[in-house]
Write a structure and sequence with these properties.
It contains 14 helices and 4 strands. It is α/β, with parallel strands linked by helices. The chain folds into 2 domains: 104 residues, no CATH class; 169 residues, no CATH class. Helix 11 crosses helix 12. The longest helix has 22 residues. It is globular and about 55 Å long.
Amino acid sequence: MTIDRIANAICQDTTFKGTYVLVEGNNDFTLFRKFFKNEVCDVKISFGKDIIEGVIEILEQRGYENTIGILDSDFHNLNTTKPKNQNLFFTDTHDLETLILQSDAIEILLDQYSIKEKVEDFLEENGDKDIRKVLLNLISPLGYLKWANQENQWGIIFKPKDIDAPELKIEDFIPPATIKFSGNKKMVNTVFNFARGKVKKLPEEDVVLKHLEEKCKEEVDKYQLCNGHDVAYLLSLTLRKKIANLNSKAVSAKQIESDLILAYDSRFFEQTNLYTEIKKWEVKSNIEILKF
């Protein structure tokens, strides 16, 4: 679906008089349709941030403002950049999954999949009582690498081009047997091996390592830095070898994300800045679209 096709479809649909809520992907759709009034809202997957921004811009030019978009903030909050349009809203944290991670949803998930004593041992081993912080600290070097990649426009890719293609193997630099980070060099080597052949040219590895070392010295909010899919992947590895009960050793990252979405309810969402900003939009537009 192109930007023009989505915008045209919205403008030409005379049968629907409500508000369109554009979201990036399947997880966003599954979560947010729980919070918006079905009778007055149509939550639509638009397959990417650039598409949503483009659709909202076209609709505004045509005088059609009864559409909002919800975007992963990615590194926008770290870079102190704001949405391009008053009808666009960023997640409080890096993305939807890290937003959920801030809630009690992870405790609900751990109650289902883990053994309490194993979790306590894992946390003691890592010197923290909060599994969120442990996971974020372990995966943060990858977050710093992605941030440096964006700033320096290296063009490294971290995701498969096709939905069924193999993902970046985080276990190659955070082995399941130890759940310990193997170092920047091992991580960069793993990322380069994944990206090689998928991009025209990769930067020099020594250049990347040097920039990464400096980037890692910046103390930032890990919820803004880390990608939620990476955290879910790491939690899947941690369950496999460290904390799972007998029935949960093969729980995938995809299943973890799905279960976290199911466990995340309105009482958590009401505590977010995203909720507050949408409520302000309701007042300004004189339209009620949220269920609560």
